[in-house]
Specification:
single chain; about 425 residues; alpha+beta; 3-stranded antiparallel beta sheet; extended
Amino acid sequence: MNEDWRKKSRSAEGSIKTIKGYLYARIQWIDETTGKRKEKLRRAENRTKARTHIKDMIAELENHGEETLNADKMTFSELATKYEKTELVAAIYRDGRKAEGKRSIVPQKSLLKPIVEHFGRKPIRKIKASDLKAYKVERLNTPVVVEVNNKILNDEETKKKTRRKYRIEKVKKERPRKVATVNRELALLRVVLNFAKNNRWLIENPFERQKGLISASAEVQRDRILSHEEEGRLLAACNGKREHLKPLVIAAVDTGMRRGELFKLQWKEIDLFTRKITVLATNTKTQKSRIIGMTQRVYDELSKLWEISPKVENDLVFGISNNVKRSFVSACNDAGLIDFHFHDLRHCFCTRAIRAGVPHLEVMKLSGHQEIKTFQRYLNLNTESISNSANMLDAYLTLEQSKIERIEASNAVN
């Protein structure tokens, strides 16, 4: 008897209703939880369309439930708001590990902004696979506009008044938007739409019908590393007001630690006696702790910093909590380094460690990489290593050829 009631409670009845001169398809059903009668209206152009709406609504209710049925008019802007409130929340840590939330919210919100601007008013049910492709094309064709400081020489009269040789004016410059940036936006869009599907507001994610939209192979992978001569120039440029950069640069290039990991490093995680650095799980991108050994020059730099510090274990080792982009760019300019970023120092560590003979898996452990595909991006071939590999192959071929010649000579004698 109870089963009959439940079966009856799921059944929905449809009808066509006129409200203020407009036709509406209406279905009514009994809510399983409360036992109350509910209804859903959907406007129709004519009676034929209304009958189609009735069939569609009954199918949605039976196959996907009430949540899906009631979300037919949810816009992407409304969905994004729900996603932010539910998913983009500060991380909660327990026992040194992230239990819930996200470590970095600001970058995600920044990626979400152009997506909302594009799809905001559009109902999520009406976002098609072709719309995703159109968004990608539009973003790739929209250049990035940035403001840069332009140094302008003052005229003689202005020099006398201001006592300044130059003045700084903001100038807008454009550059092409990177494929990697658009890929990250599309990846987030896919996550948000999956969030809607998991909550039964969306029946199907349009990404399921548009394969290959996010193509990592189209991204330009950075392979910039420092030569030892370039490194010397960079360290020489870390002086005066930029003196704080020297230990940071040496630590980055000799440990492979990420910038955020270096900034968050505290003295309690430094063991000068055993010459070990402990990177806590809460400070890593992969949420896994690791231990890194110190080279002699890293040990020397950290020892100097410890001696001049207040010797408080909870203090930051490098005393930096935000960014060094401006001073690092300035140092690179003075050193004559073209197209070099701070993260490339980590690249240098991985490449040099491999060339020094450290096994690949050990380098991965030291650098904190989890995926071999990601790690392989850091393995560079320079002119020297390319020549070395050719010389090694030459030596192998010469050895094999000499073996053949000895066998042939021996056979000739016999």
